Amino acid sequence: xxxxxxxxxxxxxxxxxxxxxxxxxxxxxxxxxxxxxxxxxxxxxxxxxxxxxxxxxxxxxxxxxxxxxxxxxxxxxxxxxxxxxxxxxxxxxxxxxxxxxxxxxxxxxxxxxxxxxxxxxxxxxxxxxxxxxxxxxxxxxxxxxxxxxxxxxxxxxxxxxxxxxxxxxxxxxxxxxxxxxxxxxxxxxxxxxxxxxxxxxxxxxxxxxxxxxxxxxxxxxxxxxxxxxxxxxxxxxxxxxxxxxxxxxxxxxxxxxxxxxxxxxxxxxxxxxxxxxxxxxxxxxxxxxxxxxxxxxxxxxxxxxxxxxxxxxxxxxxxxxxxxxxxxxxxxxxxxxxxxxxxxxxxxxxxxxxxxxxxxxxxxxxxxxxxxxxxxxxxxxxxxxxxxxxxxxxxxxxxxxxxxxxxxxxxxxxxxxxxxxxxxxxxxxxxxxxxxxxxxxxxxxxxxxxx
Length: 451
Ligand SMILES: [Zn+2]
Prior knowledge:
By secondary structure, this protein is of the alpha/beta class. The protein is built from 16 helices and 19 strands. The chain starts with 7 loop residues before the first strand and ends in a 5-residue tail after the last helix.
C-alpha cells in the first residue's frame, strides 16, 4: 500500500485471512477492494487505510467466496416436496411436473429464493441449470441479487414420462438457448455467463446433444449436463445407445475442458481415464447423491486420475439445502469409508470449494482466491460459533465446524451483498413471501400434471 493515496471502496481488517493460493497459508491481515477488484491482501493491521466502507473481521475467517459447480435455483420452490424417492421416479413424479407447472413468476420466485440462500451462505459463484422456459427470469434475479452466475436453460426433446409442457422441438430448443446466450453472456459487467445445458443423455435426442455441443463451442460457452448418477440411468443409456454413458457423451461432443458433468458416480476405470484424458470436469454432489441413494462418487480416485473436481449442492428438492458447508463436510468425511481417514483432508476440500472450483469453471484469474487483480468475491465467517471454538487449523474450523449460518458478510464483484447476515440487495421478507405465494400457485397447477 506504500505510496498509495487513493481511498479504497472497502477494507476488511483484523481477520484471519486464508487466500487459498498456497495450501496451509493463513495470517492476520487486511483485504482491500477498489473498483470491484481486490487491490491488497497483506498481513498486519497497523495503519487504518482510508476507505468508504470498513468491515472489522476481528475473530472472523476471511476466505474467497465459495464456488458451487452444480445447482438448480429454479427448483427451489419444490424443496421438501420430493423426499424419499430414487432418481428416475423423482424426475417423473415430482421434478418434471413441477418444472412444467412453473410460470415466469414461479421461475423468478424460485430463483430469488435459491440465490438468497446461496449468497447468505457464502456461495458467490454458481454454475446453474435452468428449466426449459422463462430462463430470462433466472438471469434477471441473478443480476439484481448480485451473485456471479453461469447458467443456461435446460434442453429436453425426448424421454419416458416427461410432462408434455417440457418436451421441446429440437431446433427451437437450440435457437432459444442461442438467443439467451447472446443476451446474457458477459452481462452485468461479466458477472453473468451462459452455459449450454442438455439435461442428460436420456432426455435428449442425439441430434440435440450434438447441437448443444456445437452451439457452445461456436460461441465459447461452457457445457453442462448430468452423467452416471444412477445405475438405472446408466443401464438405460446402454440399452438405448449400445454404449457406456461417458463413451456416448464423448461420441456426441460432451466431453472436454469446457464440459462440467454433475455426479460421475457409476464409472468404469476406462470412463474415468477418458474423463481425465479429455479434461472433462466432474461436479461432486454428495448431499444429493446420498438422499437419492444414487451412490458415492469415488472422488479420491477421480482426483488421482487427474479429473478436475468441484463441489455442488444440486437442487433444493434433492438435498434439501444449497449449503456449500454441508457439501464440504460430507466430502471431507464420506470418502473415509473407502479410502481411510486421510482420504480428503480439510484443506483439499476447501480448495475444491474455492480455487479448484473456480478453475473447473474457467474462472481462475477472476475468482476462487484472494489475490490482487482478481474480482472481489469474499466471505467473512464469524469464528465465534460454538462449533468453531476454541481454536484450531482454520481449514478444519471451516470444513468441520462451520455452517451457512456462520457466514456474516459477503462481497461479490466488489459489492457488499450480505452484511451482518442480512441480504442487502433485496428485502429478504419480500423474497420469502413471494416464494410461499408462488409455491401455492405452482402446486395447484402440478396436481393436473402429475401422472
Ligand atoms: Zn442436477
